[in-house]
Amino acid sequence: MKRDYAVIGLGRFGGSICKELSAEGRQVLAIDSDEDRINEFKNIASHAVMADSTDEATLNELGIKNIDHVIVAIGDNIQASILTTVVLTDLDIKKITVKAQNDYHEKILNRIGAHQVVHPERDMGKRIAHNIISNNILDYLEVSDDHSIVEVKAGGKMRGHSLANLDVRANYGCNIVAIKRDKDINVSPAAEEVLREEDILIVIGADKDISRFEKHLV
Ligand code: ADP
C-alpha cells in the first residue's frame, strides 16, 4: 500500500505529527523502537511498526524507499537521530525532515543532508516570548536569521490613523502587508486605510525594526 509519510520516533513531537497527519486522512507509517509507543499508535497510524531506525536493512524491509516524506522525531538520542538521517539520505528519500535538539545537532543534520531541520522547542520559545512581551502580539514567524513576520492587534496608538499617517515603513523600516478585519483579509491595504480597534496587522521586517515597532506602537 502506498503510504504518504513515515514518522520515526513517537515521543511528544513525533506522536503529535503522526496523530495530526492521520486525522487529516494521510497514510502514515509510524516507527518506534519502544513497544509501548507502538501499541499506543496501532489504532492511530495506518501502520505502526516496532523497529530500530538506525538499521538500514530494517528500513528497507519496511519499504521506506516508497515513501516520499520521512520525519525523524527522535529526541534525546542524538546519535540515533543522526544515524537514521544518514541511512535515509543513503536511501535517497525525497524529503527528510528532522527534529534538532540543539544548535550543534542542527548543524550536523544540515551537513549530512537533511532537507529540513526543525527546532520546535526553540521556535515555540521565541513565539511565546514575543507574546509575553505584549499581549497584542498574536503570532511570530521567523523568515530568516534576522527577519520575521508578526501578527499584532492594532495597538491604541495606531487606531484611528491611516497607514499613510503612521508611515510604518519610513518610521520603523517594516511593512504592514495585510490587515485582518472580521473574517476578511486585505492583502494589499491602501495608504488611506484607517485602522480600527479590532484590526489585526501582519507585519514583515528585520527583527530590530519589528522590535522598535512593537515597543512604540503595539
Ligand atoms: P520528544 O522530546 O519529542 O518527546 P522523545 O525523545 O521522548 O521525544 O521520543 C523519541 C522517540 O524516539 C521515543 O519514543 C524513542 O523510543 C524513539 N527512538 C529512539 N531511538 C530510536 C531508534 N533508534 N529507532 C526508533 N525509534 C527510536
UniProtKB/TrEMBL annotation:
GO terms for molecular function: monoatomic cation transmembrane transporter activity. InterPro entries: NAD(P)-bd_dom_sf, RCK_C, RCK_C_sf, RCK_N, Trk_Ktr_HKT_K-transport. Gene3D superfamilies: NAD(P)-binding Rossmann-like Domain, Regulator of K+ conductance, C-terminal domain. Residues 2-119 form the RCK N-terminal domain. One of its GO terms (biological process) is potassium ion transport. It comes from Lentibacillus amyloliquefaciens. This is Potassium transporter Trk. Residues 135-218 form the RCK C-terminal domain. PANTHER family: KTR SYSTEM POTASSIUM UPTAKE PROTEIN C, POTASSIUM CHANNEL PROTEIN 2-RELATED-RELATED.
